[in-house]
Each structure stands twice: as structure tokens, then as C-alpha cells.
Amino acid sequence: MRTIPPAVAVFLVLAGHASTPAAWGHRPIQAAENSQYRLVENWVHFPPEVTKWGQATGVDVDSHDNVFVFHRNELMPIMAFDTHGNFIRAWGRGMFKTTHFLRVDRSGAIWVTDRGYMEAFKFNREGTLLLTLGKQDVPGDNTSHDTFNGMADLAVTKNGDIFVADGEGPNTRVAKFAKDGAFIKWWGGKGTEPGQFNMPHSIAVDSRDRIYVADRSNNRVQMFDKDGKFLNQWTNVGVPWGLFIKGDLMYLVDGSDNNCLLVMSLKDGRILDKVTGLSNPTAVAVDSTGAIYVGEVNGTNVRKFIKTKS
Q1: Are the CB atoms for 236 and 271 separated by under 8 Å?
Q2: Residue 249 has pLDDT above 70, yes or no
Q3: pLDDT tens by residue, 210-235
Q4: Regarding predicted confidence, which is higher, 13 or 143?
Q5: CB within 8 Å of 180: residues ≥ 6 apart
Q6: Strand partners, 183
Q7: Three-state DSSP class for 223?
Q8: pLDDT per residue as tens digits for the range 52-70
Q9: Which backbone phi and psi does 140 adopt, to 5 degrees?
């Protein structure tokens, strides 16, 4: 292992729920031998109103490589920056109780999940609210059609179907909705068998519309078709907190004591690269150049890494 020089860029938005605060931030960020990634310090230029990150729980990029961050800041919970780190806009003041994940779908819409109010919100790029899933402060169970009790993350397929990981709480399911928010089905339930979950915390979709679920407390990633049929699982992933898929790669952050980022082959689940020494990473995203963005919750940071080798 070798320490990453402080002048290069993969983007880590490290969000935190880890259980050992004393360990956070005390170990240098390190990459595996021959790693492709290097850290870039101070990549972002804040506006005067917000000069530092709050607990960063969500991050994603759009088709222009603009970076959207969801962090625990009352004034500007959703912030957008260009690829050079210049501030573009912010919105959502006073709107959220407990920020969680952020996703940009193929149409460019911005989705965020609020684990406190148990709702998900869809915005356009300018911050106009387009759709809400859930009812504020109204809990539901695994069979509920319009309420949640564990709202964690969501993913959107090519045709606009919405898949919600409803698992950071009493619920243990994936719920599927149509593009307009109409309920279609759910699957899961608590357990360790294929198709069951113990904290489905993050969810991602690949180019073939296969669904990948970070089954966090079961220490595995499960794969399904878009109808919820179990396909496969990987158990070499540590404690999966956040998932992102780009091309034939999966990027996975482990916010437990492992505090690491894994780059994996989507074909067979092999670990191709690893970065350690992170500070409770929860969310991860990758732009068109291969730059990685990771959100640290207890690290209260959004880090950027760049790919330095082909």
C-alpha cells in the first residue's frame, strides 16, 4: 500500500453511520499497489453562504459531468458544481429532515431520498419539484403502496420505472413504481435467503436494467431482474453501504470499520482496485472521465479522485 499524493482526483462523498468514530480520519488514504486512482484536495469552490461540507450522504453526476451533492446543511442541502468545482446552484432549504441518497436519472432529473420524513423527491435540474413518493412522517410496512419505513435509496431504469430500497428501518424490501409514481410491486422481507434482505441500503441499475441491492447487514450484494427475480449474489464485498454502476464496473463504498472503496468487475464480481482510509463513505459516483466522487457522512467531506492510468 502507498499513500496517495494530495494532488489528484477521484471524487469521494463519504457519508457516515459507522460505529467507531475514533477511527475516522486518522488513517491516510491509501490505494492498492498499481492503483489507478489519486486524490485531489480542495477541488471545490464554495459560495459565500456555505463554506464547508455538512455530512455528505449523496452524490451523482449528470451527462455534462456536473456534480450534485446532498449534504446535511439546512441552507443549501442540494448543491450543484461544474466539473471544475465551480458552484452552479443550490436548493431545498428547510425541505428535508434527514438527507440520504441522491441520484441523477437518464433524463437528467435529480432524485433525493429523505430517511427522516420517509419520502423521495424528483426535481428538474433547476430545482423544481416534479414528483414525491411517500407521505411525510407517515410510516408504512413492507406491503404499503404509498408509504415507507426505511427510505434509503432509489434507482431508475431506462423506461422510467423506479426502484426504492426501503430498508434503513423496520422495512426490508425493494418497492417498484411506474414512471408516474404508481405502485407496481414489492419483494424482499427480512432474512438471509436469496431474495430476502437485512437492511437493503443502496440500489443501482446496469445498462441491461438488472437491479443490484446492497444488502448491508447481510454483507452481500444481490442481483435481480426488473421483475424482482433473483439472479445472483456477491459475498466478497465487506459491508456494502453505497453502490454505483458505470459501464462494466461497479463502485462500492464500505462505511464500516473497513472504510474503503472497491472497484469491481460487473461481469463476475472480482475486485479490481481498492482505496482505504476513508471516513465513513456512504455514496459514490463516477463521471465520464472516470473521476470518482465519494460522500463522507462523519467525515463531512466530498472527496474527488481521478483516474491516472488506463
Answers
A1: yes
A2: yes
A3: 999 999 999 999 999 999 999 999 99
A4: 143
A5: 131
A6: 177
A7: strand
A8: 999 999 999 999 999 999 9
A9: -130, 175
Is residue 14's pLDDT more than 60? no
CA dist 257 and 204 (Å) reads: 23
Q: Are strands 230-234 and 220-224 parallel, antiparallel or unpaired?
A: antiparallel
Nearest to 113 by CA among 127, 133, 94, 141: 133
Q: Which three cell numbers stand for residue 252?
A: 462500492
Q: How confident is the model at residue 4 (pLDDT cuts 50, 70, 90)?
A: very low
Q: For residues 194 and 273, give the distance between their C-alpha atoms in angstroms, rounded to a whole number.
A: 27
Please, which residues bridge with residue 285 across strands?
293
The amino acid at 41: E
Closest CA to 153 of 114, 110, 95: 114
> Which residues are registered as beta bridge partners of 304?
11, 293
CB 302 within 8 A of CB 12: yes
pLDDT digits (tens, 9 = 90+) for 84-94: 999 999 999 99
Strand 162-166 relative to strand 151-156, pairing: antiparallel
For residue 94, the 8-state DSSP code is T
Amino acid at 256: S
Give the per-residue SS3 of 234-270: ECCCCCCCEEEEECCEEEEEECCCCCEEEEEECCCCC
- Residue 308's pLDDT band, with cuts at 50, 70 and 90, is confident
Taking alpha carbons only, the member of 63, 66, 98 closest to residue 83 is: 66
Joined grid coordinates for residue 99: 438527507
